[in-house]
Amino acid sequence: MSGSVRPAPPSDLGTPSPKTRHHVARSFAACTQGLRWSMASLVVVVAVTASAQDTVYPYGVPAEKPDMELSAAMERAYEQYIAPSTWDNELFTKFRHSPIEGLDYHDGDGTISRRDPSKIVKANGKYYVWYTRRSTPTPPRGAAGGTDVIPSTDWDLAEIWYATSTDGFTWTEQGVAVKRPPKPQAGWRSVSTPDVLVWKGKYYLFYQAFLEMSGTRGDDCPVTASWADSPDGPWHAVGNVVIPNGSKGQWDQYSIHDPYPLVYKGKIYLYYKSEANGKPRPVRFTGLAIADNPLGPYTKHSLNPVLNSGHETGLFPFKEGIAAMVIRHGNEHNTIQYAPDGVNFQVASSVSLMPIASGPYVPDAFDGNDNGRGITWGLCHHTGAGTKDKKHSILYRFDCDLSLDVHDEWMKEPEHWFPPEVYFHSQVNAGKRKQLIDAAEKDLAE
């Protein structure tokens, strides 16, 4: 009631009896014990929860391997790759492909073909590229149809030409760099698949030198070279084999293809491809030959082959080692691989739509400074241009992000989306379709 005065509590409630004191003490002890058990339980629950959280992989993907037991797949994500996801893996990329302008293909009749571009070199304010060029009266006719003027394959009866560009998209063909020498010199039948080395102010072209018509056996094809004081030539053929085929029974006994020189640790590391096992089940490997001077002598590495998969060579300095684009063939095809010593390669990423016969622009290809920066673009070829009776190869451009100096999120997203027609282009043929239908009918009848 408003204005009322609450009576004061009594100041003396009297002395509790011994029985009352005993009950109060027991009640207090019970409450205290219960509180202790509750607190202990809470500590256990918190500890168990924290422990469980520590052993479950976190939502935010750690850049460094967490201190916990991991599956083999997650161990590999941290131990084998630069980063546990493609977003931060400097050796993962999406490849983008674009047509180039300026090169004529004779209305696509199959008589002109360009393929196997070299590394791209910057000189005289331009980009330079060398490549295989075939100009013949007819398209290739196979080994049975080949003659002194009719090619057996797309790279038969070829020469090495070059082109220049100021933007990497439009190219101007400058003419022939290396012609076929007279028989019986190495390359009399065809010279093809060049690559370039710049060493102490001089330019060197290494290329396949065919001593027989391609397709007749194992493509008897060692490597030879030409040199010049300028990327525009004139080019002087050395006139001898620079890297010979292997001895009989060795994996590279028939051919040394796709010579690809880099400067590494003060020496010339020349990677090459060869084909073992023979038809109908060929196996492609990559080897390495090392020299102190461009024209040799070259010593093939004792651990050859250094790559167990791939086809054409395409490598570049990366950090203190060498990275390789491994395409098309083998258990590890469609991968980017890395060797800190340039020899012992490991898979660094799995990629798709890789450029075939890549000729990347490698600004530091010849620096040899143990600080390779990677690549972002280059040229490559497509061998399926033209109709069946007019097949030829064309050059085109690829872009990527395999660079330590660029981080393009657009290139780090791994998805490719294609219309159904792209997938159906590789559908089974009529004979295989019938075989599969017969197998299905037999399966259902059992």
Automatic annotation (TrEMBL):
UniProt keyword annotation of Metal-binding present: no
Pathway: Glycan metabolism; L-arabinan degradation
Annotated stretches, region: Disordered: 1-22
Alphabetical list of CDD domains matching this protein: GH117 (cd08992)
Gene Ontology BP term (one): carbohydrate metabolic process
Transmembrane spans: none
GO molecular function (one): hydrolase activity, hydrolyzing O-glycosyl compounds
Assigned keywords, A-Z: Glycosidase, Hydrolase
Similarity field: Belongs to the glycosyl hydrolase 43 family.
Protein name: Glycosyl hydrolases family 43
Organism: Crateriforma conspicua
